[in-house]
Write a structure and sequence with these properties.
Strand order of the largest sheet: 12-11-10-9-13
Structural class: alpha+beta
Radius of gyration: 23 Å
Number of strands: 13
Number of helices: 4
Strand content: 35-45%
Distance between the termini: 56 Å
Largest sheet: 5 strands, antiparallel
Shape: elongated
Length: 183
């Protein structure tokens, strides 16, 4: 590994060449439209390490447009990060991949710190929800808005809740964004 003090004295192009010689580094891979996950899966099958930064966004449902869902979408549309080494040529021929962003005749480098910062932000969004089984709540969106409910289970951002509907206790799956605490 290169010494940090030594790195400050080198011009950027020399530093890039030395880092490439030492081993793998991160590069940016452009994918076909809406093919980020597919390209990442295909690259991983080939043995490459990938990182697709995702962000939670609120999207409107197609059937009832008043219903909204939190979904994980790529932070950078049509881009993902791939860890490359001397054997980067097969990446460009992977299904779902449009091209690698190049600097001269080799893939451009992305600082490790930048990728780690993106991972840190993504980890903050993965904080578990406070919806434990047995928590009393009310539904605020969708066809059951205004009904009292109780959380039965949660998985990621989907909660299974019990509501009283048509004279019986019914189990309904809803996005946790549709819930508000009663209490």
């Amino acid at each position: 590994m290169l010494d940090a003090a030594h790195n400050q004295d080198l011009p950027a192009t020399q530093l890039d060449r030395d880092t490439r010689r030492c081993g793998s580094y991160w590069a940016v891979c452009q994918t076909h439209p809406q093919a980020e996950r597919w390209a990442a899966a295909n690259l991983q099958r080939q043995g490459y390490v990938t990182f697709l930064p995702l962000v939670r966004v609120l999207k409107r449902d197609r059937s009832p447009p008043t219903l909204r869902h939190h979904v994980l979408a790529p932070l950078f549309t049509s881009y993902l990060f791939v860890q490359v080494d001397r054997h980067w040529a097969p990446i460009q021929h992977t299904s779902g991949v449009r091209r690698l962003l190049m600097a001269d005749r080799s893939p451009g480098m992305v600082p490790e710190a930048a990728v780690e910062a993106l991972r840190g932000v993504q980890d903050l969004e993965a904080i578990p929800t406070p919806w434990e089984p047995g928590t009393p709540c009310s539904l605020v969106l969708g066809p059951f808005a205004g009904l009292d409910a109780v959380v039965l289970s949660t998985h990621r951002n989907i909660a299974q809740v019990g509501i009283m509907c048509m004279g019986a206790l019914r189990s309904v799956s809803v996005d946790v964004a549709c819930l508000v605490s009663r209490g």
